[in-house]
Amino acid sequence: MTDAPIPAAALRLGLAGLIPTVAVLAAMGMLPGWRLLAAGIGIAYGAVILSFVGGAWWGIAAARAEGTAQGRLLAIAVLPSFPAWLALLLPPVPGLVLLGLAFLALLPADARLAREGLAPPWWFALRRVLSVAMAALHLAMAGWLVLSGPAFPG
């Protein structure tokens, strides 16, 4: 597996996808009365992005894999949706921790996709940055809630 240069458009759009999560973390710090609402927004966005990665894996499986490998990858592709859905049902701190850990759990599958030549050669370099960033941001949100205590609007 080589870390080929990431196409500029993929890098820019991938990094832009971090903006909502960074904004949520900033809002939690700047608007303490809205901390829980901001956390809920962060959980919802994280769940969407986690499911999006599963959808990307599905697309890779449909386009590049064949036979048993395709079936295995299609099955793996639906897995990110489960912790995403569960995070929406949990209280904020466990939901954020679950998402943070789930983003880290994506890394072995992304590495394997690149190593087996199913994903573009730059795939893992990009996914590693984005998954680690999303994990860190979600865990930081959880930590912020734990350290600052809950706050309610009004």
TrEMBL record:
It comes from the Bacteria. The keyword tRNA-binding does not apply. Keywords: Membrane, Transmembrane, Transmembrane helix. The keyword Membrane applies. The chain crosses the membrane at residues 12-31, 37-61, 125-147. InterPro entries: DUF3429 (IPR021836). This is DUF3429 domain-containing protein.
